[in-house]
Write a structure and sequence with these properties.
Keywords: Isomerase, RNA-binding. By secondary structure, this protein is of the alpha+beta class. The chain is built from 6 helices and 15 strands.
Amino acid sequence: MAEAGIASRRKSEVLIAEGHVQVNGETVTEQGIKVGIHDQVSVDGIPLNHAKLVYYLLNKPRGVISSSKDDKGRKTVVDILAENVDARVYPVGRLDYDTTGLLLLTNDGEMANKLTHPRFEFEKTYVAKVQGIVKNEEMKQLRLGVKVEGRKTHPAKTKVLDTDTTKRTSLVELTIHEGRNHQVKKMMKAVGHEVIKLHRESYGFLTLQGVQSGEFRALRTSEVMELRKQTGLSE
């Protein structure tokens, strides 16, 4: 089920336990049942097809939802790929509506689950334009970890890229491996700076080189193999 992009491995286990899965027409609720190539697996009566796994890297533009659909009718990241990608893909994690930059999309539920799991500590690098002149002491606080909603963040890698003393703004680079909601914005607020603009530059070893805003590309075979290696899927 995870390989077919229906759900992550954990969510698949929940679907099985709740009686949504059938093997050869019979509902199963036990985990770990072996199925062969001639067995027909269905979810709520819909046959499960072993879809080809695909992986895409998108340079998400501002004002687009990191979701497969939006109840308010706003444009989603899946809409951007829809005209040229036949597979049903989903974003790996999310970027805020007003945040731009690198986002992965795939129909590989198991891979997506691994990539977002804290255990694997995939580093994500962001560039943030913030209000105020950032001080070295504030950068040190971020490197040591700051309290966000009662929990201390893991140490971040930080760098001040530029300051504008006239407009009283700073451009800073942060590298983190956690994935809490609005984390970079909350971290910067914790040291006294509101984020004006936020852009994700990289995700692990993947970068946006050659991919303009609103554009996407398929991951190379070597990149997929490296992701599988780093998440333990190739073992």
